[in-house]
Design a protein that fits this description.
elongated; mainly alpha
Length: 220
């Protein structure tokens, strides 16, 4: 959603630049286009899209501190978890506080008590991902999707693993992202961004050209 807003404002700014510059510079007789206005608009558009592309790149390469720093949250841990749901809640609490290793143990306890606890498989996989342990995350996501083939979060997480981190398989990532789009019938910009990068094999010159050309907005 944030990216869509940025693109909207970038489009708005470039339109305003063209209107302002076209009024300031008159077109000579016999000329159909205001070359100065078009040139100024193109420069502004390139600068704005460059900032957006740089922001997308830095957001995907920023260091992850979720599992390396403590986080204060308002909720309290359970005194004596017993059921699968209890351990799942405890796992979420430990993850939120930054104790990823303990969260893994909690999710494992939840799965032991309920082998079909799809949310526990997904959350344990996501915690593994934040710990950069993609080898153990992938089987959990496969199992979560096996239990529920319409589980959006698990499909997104598995797509991200194949797209960015482990056993890079962009076609598999594309399949998962497009499955998400088909299930939600909503071309959310976050899904479209991941799909866009997968189709262009990550960040490269073609990715930037595709962003500038507006290909990203078509999503598929």
């Amino acid at each position: 959603m944030k990216l869509a807003v940025l693109l909207f404002f970038a489009t708005l700014i470039t339109c305003l630049v063209y209107i302002f510059s076209s009024k300031r510079v008159r077109v000579k007789k016999g000329k159909k286009f205001n070359v100065v206005a078009i040139g100024a608009t193109a420069i502004v558009a390139c600068v704005l899209l460059s900032f957006i592309a740089f922001g997308m790149y830095t957001s995907t390469t920023a260091p992850d501190t979720q599992c390396t720093t403590a986080h204060a949250i308002p909720s309290r841990p359970l005194a004596a978890p017993k059921t699968a749901a209890d351990y799942f809640f405890q796992g979420n609490y430990d993850y939120d506080t930054g104790d990823c290793k303990r969260a893994i143990l909690d999710y494992t306890q939840a799965i032991t008590r309920n082998p079909d606890y799809v949310e526990a498989f997904n959350n344990r996989a996501y915690t593994y991902m934040r710990m950069k342990d993609y080898k153990d995350a992938l089987p959990d996501l496969d199992r979560a999707i096996q239990i529920n083939s319409r589980y959006i979060q698990a499909l997104m997480n598995r797509g991200d693993i194949h797209n960015y981190y482990y056993h890079i398989d962009r076609q598999a990532a594309i399949a998962d992202y497009e499955r998400v789009i088909s299930l939600t019938n909503n071309r959310d910009t976050s899904v479209c961004g991941h799909l866009f990068l997968a189709k262009h094999n990550g960040w490269n010159a073609g990715t930037v050209v595709g962003l500038f050309s507006g290909e990203f907005l078509s999503c598929r």
